Amino acid sequence: MGVKRGALLAVAVALMLPGSTAAPTLRPRVVLDSGHGGADSGMVSQWVREADVNLAVAKAARSVLERRGVEVIMTRSDTRALHPDKRTDLDRRARLANTGTVSAFVSIHVNAGSPAARGIETFYFGQPLAGQSRSLAVFENGGGASGEALTRQVTSSAQAVLGDVLAQAKLTFSRQLAQGLQAGLVGATGAVNRGVQTDAFYVIRNPTTPAVLVEVGFGSSPTEGPRLAQAAYQQRLGTAIAESLLRFLHQ
Asked: Which side of the chain, N or C, has fewer Cβ within a 10 Å radius?
């Protein structure tokens, strides 16, 4: 990286730092995105309906954060989505996060796979990892033909993001946030650690603040599905997300 480019990146990172003097807010503000909602229930198993679990975990995280003085913006506080059209819905969620007014954006989801699939994984925006036969983002971007089309569009822009200085600063802090959340959630739950990865999730492409998407477990798993349905476990997940965010915000 050239000296000039390195200096620009350093400035961009400084502007994005949680608690930066560039931020006009009097207290930290984060966005909690409960994935899916409305007609889009997300994954459904005999144990859980994803949209319901996502909302319960987000509410649990909100309670902890607000008690610690952090302002929380919820993309939804009930069963409704922001818009029936998936792309418009994701756009409206993403627009709630802007550098200078919001310090972090966390999208909460439940995973699906074979009965043997278990564990927690956290994503920040980028190209799907090599060897992935099908991007998980297709499902979270709406599924079906529309999800495929939206994922293709977002994936094609992922490489261009790497050439933008401000976008690089966002990705640097998104990766740090993802690593902190992943460690906090695995430590609090003892779940299988599936690691931090990149993928082309539309909802974390557009926020200009550190943004991540976390899959808190597999609702399709005979082990994790029943656990995800328990209010106490949802509270544990929400608390772990909140405490990880507090560490990221230096609160």
From this structure: N
- 216, 120 contact by CB (below 8 A): yes
**CB neighbour burial string for 46-63, b if at least 16 within 10 angstroms, e if fewer:** ebbbbbbbbbbbbbbbbe
pLDDT at 162 over 60: no
3-class SS of residue 46: coil
Q: Which letter does DSSP use for residue 210 in this model? A: -
- Nearest Cα to 158, choosing from 179, 137, 139? 137
Over residues 213-232, the pLDDT tens digits come to 999 999 999 999 999 999 99
**pLDDT tens-digit map of 104-136:** 999 999 999 999 999 999 999 877 655 554 556
Maximum Cα–Cα distance across the chain: 56
In the predicted structure, residue 2 carries a pLDDT above the cut 60: no
Could you give the C-alpha distances from 110 to 57, 64, 87, 106, 161, in angstroms and in order? 10, 21, 20, 13, 27
Is there a contact between 115 and 221 (Cβ–Cβ < 8 Å)?
Answer: yes
CATH assignment of the domain containing 38: 3.40.630.40
Give domain status of residue 189, yes or no: yes
66 to each of 11, 53, 190, how far by Cα in Å? Answer: 30, 20, 26
Indicate whether 6 belongs to any domain. Answer: no
Q: Considering the domain boundaries, does residue 20 fall inside one?
A: no
Q: E strands of 16-119, at which residues?
A: 29-34, 71-74, 104-111
The range of the structural domain enclosing residue 196 comes to 27-248
Q: Please indicate, yes or no, whether the overall pTM of this predicted structure exceeds 0.85.
A: no
User: How many structural domains comprise the chain?
Assistant: 1
